[in-house]
């Protein structure tokens, strides 16, 4: 490929290259796109998912972030002009998997502190510890961790309320998990998402959800988004008989207000009075 940043200046070249490889699809198992440490993954995701030549032949398996355990904290603390989010934070926030390399160069206390910080920024991502770049490929390739239904395998503790006794979260980028029972009003929820993405798309790196809508029978819906691009559709398996209709949401982004998001989502829950209004 041409020299340049794969997330912007050579995206056209990326499409051409992958398009040419599509005819040789039987010759390889997967394609690994390695960006620079400064690249924003979002444009690549957008290109693969929205370009018919790409989406017809390829799917995104996982977004993997390679992190230097020895130096990552310093990069996360780096102050950018006008408080812009730095690239290290963006890489961690977008990731499905985080390879925490060089763990042999730090103390157990330093490593544990860094992992706690990574979970604050992106609690959804799995952290995989490595030394000397020896990574377990079976935990990285061919795991389909980017798919919409990956939210179904999230640690249930992810959605627990934050401990109010804990110190205030000082991270600019963080993860928020929200869950509640009931059926959503489709129109209200669509309006909420449209307003949220219109006002905060740049601040929302990743969004995921499992939804139950009033009037849709046993169909379980899932969605996931990267910035303003949202993929939405039925889950592979419907709600089971007797299964609690529990809506689950994951938001990863800048300056997130859990209370505000929860209040807005709860206003989307279908109520009997909504039938009378209609």
Sheet with the most strands: spatial strand order: 4-8-5-6-7
Q: Which residue ranges are poorly predicted, with pLDDT under 50 across at least 5 consecutive positions?
A: 163-168
Strand content: 15-25%
Q: CA-to-CA gap between the ends?
A: 56 Å
**Shape call:** globular
Radius of gyration, Cα only, in angstroms? Answer: 20 Å
Which structural category do the helix and sheet elements fall into? alpha/beta
Mean pLDDT: 85
Structural write-up:
The chain contains 9 helices and 8 strands. The strands form 2 sheets. A 5-stranded antiparallel sheet has the order 4-8-5-6-7, with helices on both faces. The termini are far apart. It has 278 residues and is α/β, with parallel strands linked by helices. The radius of gyration is 20 Å and the shape is globular. About 2% of the residues have low confidence.
Topology:
Layout: H1 11-22, H2 42-50, H3 52-55, E1 64-68, H4 72-76, H5 87-94, E2 97-101, H6 108-121, E3 126-129, E4 173-181, H7 186-200, E5 204-211, E6 221-226, E7 229-234, E8 246-254, H8 258-266, H9 272-277
Parallel strand pairs: 1-2, 2-3
Antiparallel strand pairs: 4-8, 5-6, 5-8, 6-7
Key attributes of the depicted protein:
globular; three-stranded parallel beta sheet; 278 residues; single chain; 8 strands; five-stranded antiparallel beta sheet; 9 helices; alpha/beta
